[in-house]
């Protein structure tokens, strides 16, 4: 058999990695090449992504890859959703891309000339205050000159693909997170764009997962010491799209729960669901790979536990890790709980204070130790998983049999077991690296190695090991 080696860059909100997938005709073996932290920077009171450093990590990752491997066949990049960069006529970034947790979008949604109901009927996307449409509206309102200066808009993965190939295109799955893409037509909604006063020229040609974004350019080949170029493939460039593509979904009644900074709970479907119920519960129809739709809900996620670890260690000058937090939560005999999607928890300065404020305002009293803050978060997350699972069942009319949990967060066994208990459903956990696997599978698709979704899922099944959590009372 001929081997294929695909390089997947997967950028999350807190860390990034470059992983190689080696395909032998049967299964994919993952080999980690490079890992780095993704730490936002505050500039003039605004939260931004460290673009220069992220780009350096891409180059360093490719250098390590080209040193370690004889050769590789392709590259694919996926990142978190909604964030973008504006470029000028010369194709240069004209700002540091904003972090979706930056507060400039606060209160902006009510200022738009289009009501959410209309947005939803056209785009099928749930309301999140940081959707690209609100970020862009806020940015042009604060800096009107940018409306004239900006020539192109690229989402984060598009931007990295552009750096590597020189081509400016927008990948479909990431574009769907903007709330500017027509859910039926899978193209920019020009009517919305016009009515918001956004220049039409900003929006690039849409390219779908499995197409080629471009070839790695000479400048980068030279930099990393390669003699033959390779294609940079348009994968499901939204990390959540790649994550869904990388799940060994058993059947159409299997829900998935992707556990990263966010928890994304949903179903893979073929046609969008846009109706009164889905609007009321604000479920998204994000674009998926190979003509699928990701019908899902964003729920806050590991971000809360990461913040708890950070803020607790800062406040009490400790060096606790996740295992300490999990143990403390297990030992806590109080039953505090939060609503993780409450606005208090989007960008808290201090998550313990936010949990306190929430618990006090809901007459639960005041948590006052690590275990109590932690259990409030675990209860809150898993109860919200259950609420949204019930919504998912009632909107789709499906009875969910079990839940596939994937992503870094499944290394937390307490989260997996509590999810099984609270939802009273079997949890099938794995793989941890589902976005990387999904990214690689679409590269193999573009290279002509696989041709259907079911073939892809069979390869994934052979490639991963899973862990089952049965509900316990
Ligand atoms: C998860 C994710 C999610 C988006 C959020 C901004 O990483 O991509 O799907 O809503 O980040």
From TrEMBL:
<dbReference type="InterPro" id="IPR013449">
    <property type="entry name" value="Rhamnulokinase"/>
</dbReference>
<dbReference type="InterPro" id="IPR043129">
    <property type="entry name" value="ATPase_NBD"/>
</dbReference>
<comment type="similarity">
    <text>Belongs to the FGGY kinase family.</text>
</comment>
<keyword id="KW-0547">Nucleotide-binding</keyword>
<keyword id="KW-0684">Rhamnose metabolism</keyword>
<feature type="domain" description="Carbohydrate kinase FGGY C-terminal">
    <location>
        <begin position="255"/>
        <end position="447"/>
    </location>
</feature>
<dbReference type="Pfam" id="PF00370">
    <property type="entry name" value="FGGY_N"/>
</dbReference>
<dbReference type="InterPro" id="IPR018484">
    <property type="entry name" value="FGGY_N"/>
</dbReference>
<keyword id="KW-0418">Kinase</keyword>
<dbReference type="Pfam" id="PF02782">
    <property type="entry name" value="FGGY_C"/>
</dbReference>
<keyword id="KW-0067">ATP-binding</keyword>
<dbReference type="GO" id="GO:0016740">
    <property type="term" value="F:transferase activity"/>
</dbReference>
<feature type="domain" description="Carbohydrate kinase FGGY N-terminal">
    <location>
        <begin position="7"/>
        <end position="245"/>
    </location>
</feature>
<keyword id="KW-0808">Transferase</keyword>
<protein>
    <submittedName>
        <fullName>Rhamnulokinase family protein</fullName>
        <ecNumber>2.7.1.-</ecNumber>
    </submittedName>
</protein>
<keyword id="KW-1015">Disulfide bond</keyword>
<dbReference type="InterPro" id="IPR018485">
    <property type="entry name" value="FGGY_C"/>
</dbReference>
